[in-house]
């Protein structure tokens, strides 16, 4: 069976600009995976990673920027 999991070893992680600056609520987002947006807790870099399609992530970020509720 072929492995269909994305390879996060090559991902370039960066702290989200929406993260809390005091070290509490920190998210990291990975760049360089076309069509996918991996997100993880910066305090647990080896922990679970949530992966969103870029088509879902863009409207979410737009709503966050406008401080709108999301569904």
Molecular shape: globular
- How many angstroms does the end-to-end distance come to? 35 Å
Tally the helices: what do you get? 1
Total number of distinct structural domains:
1
Major beta-sheet overview? 4 strands, antiparallel
Give a count of the beta strands, DSSP E runs of length 2 or more: 4
Side by side, the strands of the main sheet go: 1-2-3-4
Beta content: 25-35%
Our Rg estimate from Cα atoms comes to 13 Å
Quaternary state reads single chain
Task: Name the average pLDDT.
Answer: 79
Give a written overview of the molecule.
With 71 residues, the chain is of the alpha+beta class. It has one domain (10-65). It is built from 1 helix and 4 strands, in the order ββββα. The chain has one helix spanning 54-65; strands spanning 12-15, 27-31, 36-41, 50-53. The protein has a 4-stranded antiparallel sheet with strand order 1-2-3-4.
Spell out the key features of this protein.
single chain, 71 residues, alpha+beta, 4 strands
Gist of the model:
Helices cover 17% and strands 27% of the residues. The chain has 71 residues and is α+β, with helices and mostly antiparallel strands.
Task: Give the helix/strand layout.
Blueprint: E1 12-15, E2 27-31, E3 36-41, E4 50-53, H1 54-65
Antiparallel strand pairs: 1-2, 2-3, 3-4
């Amino acid at each position: 069976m072929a492995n269909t999991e994305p390879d996060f070893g090559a991902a370039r992680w960066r702290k989200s600009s929406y993260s809390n600056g005091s070290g509490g609520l920190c998210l990291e987002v990975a760049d360089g995976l076309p069509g996918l947006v991996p997100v993880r807790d910066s305090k647990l870099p080896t922990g679970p990673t949530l992966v969103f399609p870029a088509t879902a992530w863009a409207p979410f970020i737009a709503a966050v920027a406008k401080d709108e509720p999301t569904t």
